Fold this sequence. Notes:
The chain has 153 residues and is mostly helical. It has helices at 10-32, 48-70, 74-87, 91-103, 107-120, 125-152. The protein is built from 6 helices and no strands. Helix 3 (74-87) packs antiparallel against helix 4 (91-103), helix 4 (91-103) runs antiparallel to helix 5 (107-120) and helix 5 packs antiparallel against helix 6. The chain is globular and about 55 Å long.
Amino acid sequence: xxxxxxxxxxxDAATPRAEAAARLAEAVEAILRPDGSSPGxxxxxxxxxxxxARAEAHNALFRKGLAANASxxxxxxxxLLFEAARLDPxxxxxxxxxxxxxxxxxxxxxxxxxxRLLAEGSLTAKARAIAVSKLAEANAAKEAEEEAEEAEA
Length: 153
């Protein structure tokens, strides 16, 4: 109990990695597309009163998320920013949520999200610069975690 099963072949050894990669891809998609739509669809003003109400609710949640982050509560900030993104998936809201996930130590998830956000090209120049910097930070943290795991093995 507690020890992972020993792989019988190289193909079996790849299975946990493939499963982990699939879980990571699923988590990235959930973060980047929290409502299943394209980023910023509701905030663009095309949906009338309903879109405006959702955008206002988004803004209130976003402000609460920023306040939680400023007070040092990264977990609450991440939750609030995710809920804001579900209402209106603006790229900057998603970026802020990913930043909280990085603060919470989820470097592999954050790195994958930053990479996707950068590849999609939906970020402003300022947000893109932040994402590039945070991607480097996430990759460095991920490498440090992997080295620590190898040292323990």
